[in-house]
Amino acid sequence: MLDVAGLLIRLGLAAVWLVSGWLKLTDPGQTYLAVQAYEVLPESVIGVVATAMPLLELVLGLLLLAGGLTRLTAVASAAVLLVFIAAVIQSWARGLTIDCGCFGGGGQVEAGETRYPQEIARDTGFLLLAVWLMIRPRTLFSADGWLGWERGRTRSGEDDEPEPSLAVNVDETKGT
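User: That's the sequence. What structure does it adopt?
Assistant: C-alpha cells below.
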C-alpha cells in the first residue's frame, strides 16, 4: 500500500513540476516579469533565474516521472519549494502586491488580488510530498528500482538481508 501511495505522490509532484516548468518556459517574458516582481534579485540576475527556473522544474519533473534519483530529486524539490515559500512570505511581509507566478503568469496585481495564504498552503502541501519521497523514495515503476538502486530490496519488495541485531546471544559469549 505504501508503494502505491509513493507512486501517486511521485507522479503528482512530477506533474506539478512539469506543468509549472512548461507554462513558464512557453512565456519567458512573463516569467521574467514574475521574477522581477519579487524585488529581491539584482536586475543582472533576473534573466538568468527566469531562464533557469523553468528548466530546473522540467528536469525535476522528468526525474520524478521516471523515478530516477528519487531521494536526491525530492531533496532538490524540497529546497526549491522552501525558496518559493520564503519568496512569497517576504513579498507578503513587505506589502508587495504580486501574483507568485508559480504556474505561469505572475507579476504585479491589484491590492485585493493577492493570494498569499493559498499560495503558501499549496506550496507547503507540495513540500510535504517531497518530504514523503525523501523519507521513503521507493515507489512502484521507478527507474531506481529497475536499475537496482533500491539497496537491500528484492523485486518482491522484501529485504535481501535481515536487519542487524544488537542482541548478544549469551551462549555464544561463553568459552571465549
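The chain has seven helices and two strands.
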